[in-house]
Structures are given as C-alpha cells and as structure tokens.
Design goal:
mainly alpha, 75% helix
Amino acid sequence: MEAKGVKSLIFFVALYLVALGSGCVKPNMIAHGGDQFNQSNPKQSKKLSTYFNAAYFAFSMGELFALTLLVWIQTHSGMDVGFGVSAAVMAMGLISLVSGNLYYRNKPPQGSIFTPIAQVMHLNPFLFNSCCFARAPNELHLLEMHVLPFIISA
C-alpha cells in the first residue's frame, strides 16, 4: 500500500522533523552542558572533558537502545507500544532537562547569529570551486595549500 496525498505529506513532514531534531539536539545539548563548567578552574576543566566523554557515550547508548531493544519491542508488541515507550523516554528526558532549569549557568548571547553563517557562506564558494573538485590527480595538493590555512585560522 502506497501513501499518497495527505498521508505522504505527514510522512515527509515527520521525517524532516526527526532529522531536524537529531541535527539540533546533540550539538545544542553538548554546548549547553559544556557551558556549565568554568574552564578557568582546573578541576572543572577536567570535569568538562569527562562530561563530553559521558555525553557522547550516553548518545551512543541511546542509539544502541533505539536500534536494538526498541525495534525488538515494536516487532513483538506492536508499533503503538514501541512509539509509546519512545514517547515516555523522551518525556522523562524533557522533564529531567526542565527540572534543572534553576541551576543552569546560562550565558547571554554575544554578537549576531548571522556573523558565523555569513563567514561560512563567504568561504563556501572558494572551498568548493577551487579545490574540492580536483580535475586531475596532480591537483589534489590544492586542498592542502588553500583549505587548511582557512580552517586552522577560523
């Protein structure tokens, strides 16, 4: 049975929202957690490194859980139970995040959000037009000569 019309629209909107959520949650949660540590304090600086390791481990374990146990639940108990378990776990995560709101160290935004976007857009045509698509094997050195200095200085 093929989805058409409104069902197809709902499917693709849901798919794009999942991709948007995956692309936004991880980097923002990592940055938010990193902001909670004072980097000038040596003890907190060491804890920051531990936090990043623990956060990536937790993300990986969540993905492992979703790709194994959750799929098994959906196969044996039905899709509705699987989505219910997913929704319950996401609700617990949201409650956990919101409950610590009074204790978070929040940095006020500095500068314009459009500045780094403009910097990337300005650099983008140079990167892709002059070096990333080598026309011959002897032109591959252009990547080293032209791109790396921009990446290192950025």
